[in-house]
Amino acid sequence: MGVKPGLVGRDRETTQLAEALTAAAGGDGHLLVATGGLGAGKTALLTTARELAAQRGFTVLAARGSYLERELPFGLVSRLFVCVQPGEEVRHLPRIAAALGQSDALAEPGPVTLPELHVLHRALARMAAERPVAIVVDDAQWADQPSLQWLSTLPHRIEHLPVFALAGIGTGEVCTGPQTLEELLAASTGEIRLDELSGDGVRALAEQELGQPVDDEFVALCRTQAGGNPLLLLNLIRAYPGETAPALLPTVNVRLRRLAPHAPDALHALAVLGGEVTLPRVAELIGIEPCELAGTIAALHRMGLLSADGELVHPLVRNTLREELTITERQDLHAAAARLLIETGASAEAVAEHLVETRPLDEEWATEVLVSAAGRARARNRVADAVRYLRRAMTEPGSGALLAELGEAESYVDVPAAVGHLGEADPAHPALPGLLALLGEEPEFEPDAVGDRDVVPVTPAEFEPYLRAIGLLRMRGELTAAYARADRALTIARRWQHRPCVAAALTARSACLRDLGRLAGAETDAREALATLESCGAARWSTPVFAALTELALALLEVGDVDVAAQVFEVVPGEVPDLFGAPALLAARGRVRIAAGRRKDGVRDLLDCGERLRARGCDSTSWRLPLGGDHLAAEERLARACGAVLPLAAVLREQGISKGVEGIALLEESVGLLAGTGALLERARSHFALGRALHLAGRVKPARAELRIAVDLADDCGVEDLAEEIRQELAAGPAGLTESERRVAALAAEGKMNREIAAALFVQLRTVEIHLTKVYRKLGIDGRDQLAPALRLAS
Which residues pair with 36 in a beta bridge? Predict the structure, then answer.
């Protein structure tokens, strides 16, 4: 059985109680006070004190101060001594006799007399002579004045008696005798202050309530919402993950009404005003004088509900108080707050924050304030706030002229809404084509001149040409410059908070990172681009989404995660819609499918890519590359004509590999083209291919130099499969064949079929096929009939 929830994290306090009880049992009496704000766990601590005292054989006298009986003299004493007969002398003291039920007379108010105190002290001493006594009083601040005065005199009367006394005091709450309470605090032996729980205490309470471990993020969330207040934490945790509003309002409201009739209204006003808290504003909002409110605010601060500057400390309390109000009540409060703030010269944004929570006011000033606040928010790149303000302004009469302004702001964060509003306001609006592309509804593509375009874009309309210029730099092999511009574009887009531009810049930077061989970063950027597009409402099948999917799949493919790369395209239909970004996606999906062993499907995708490009009257590099054969020559011609450095280097590498020893010159050209580009992965592949060709030519020393460069580059890119293959080449010698490849090649050269080889070597048929493919490539041959002479030459 776990610790009581209110005592989790209170080991120090319970130890202090136990020590005081031990001392009292030995004749060293103590009176302790336990103080804490609302929900600090004071009652749980006092309950534990009663239980500990009973377990140790104490006579336990327990009572609780009653707010309703605070005017009844000795009311608390009567509840303490309800089962005790103090002695015959009480008959001579009518008020005590009446309080203890030994007289039918009513207890009369008035000052406490020394004989009355003496009778009570003698009764307590007689009880303590029989066995130790524990007096436990909760909510002492609500005790009647005579009982409170008796408590305040206890410390001097019990210091040599086996008596333990504990008084719980709720800080900040109404008190019948403030001066007497101060005397009690001053005379007490010690004070137990129930402060907020530590982080470890919050974790322990959460784990006990939930019955399972919790992570740091959950603990941080609890502390953000409820601090270390046990009551608030329990309500929050017990509501998790179902209810949104914990059931703590009855407890809070009862205490608040006792504090002052207007205290609940004051807290509701504070919850609504938020950061615009001032005493005069709160007072005016709830209709009382500031001087009347000041004491209540101070008491709420002492209770732990308000911070020093008058704001609600815990978001949980603020949100719960807001939820208590009906929608109409909340809207009326916000409307009153907006009027009050505009009269007192508050900023347009502060007033607008209240207006967005109200129903239409049909007042001209409201629209003006909302539009002004939207303009200021746009100027500060707080686009989401601007959209909120303009949407609220549109609900006011006569605001139709704002439709285009709203659509332009929405184009940053909510594409479907922007298309609807801009289309209604101006069907020829220049931003519509780009927005429609995000929804998969593209106009005919008409590329314009790109040039270097190093001028930083000032508006989102200038963003697309800037990104196309980055593509031109990539094609030329100026990868460092391309990356720098993509990174700059992302910084600009984030400053604008324009989500489509942010996604486009992330996609462009992902491509640059992939070119540079920084594959982990490329994957991260592509995934973030997809998440950003989803957040602004882009269609699943649209060119920006296709572009981000393409970059994600290629980054995964390059690092060797073929299966994960294939999963990327599961969201794309088999028949890819004819969007501008479709050819690039088809080329990427074709490469992935071929790498995954689905060559037929992959070739179909690549041919489809080529057909779509030709139908548009344009062509592109790279899509023919995985097809090999006669396609390589066409690819080389196109790459040279376009000045596309990376594609040209790749096609030269494939041509060189296909020609074996005779392809060394092509491979050297490929290595030379890549030397200054920063394309680490492509350089690794070209150096690797050149090293193998030099091995086949018997030029061992230069071969090994090329392979060492290749393995270092592959390691830098984190492509473990390629690095391992290069290491095997280094270890295998001039032929470049691994031991497994040699065994498969030898059996194939003897005329055995693939299934016979698989059975003889106890491996899968697919393994034999992969080994033979690598053998053909390494030996520079086209088929099985050339194996025997090639193996003799390599041996």
Answer: 170
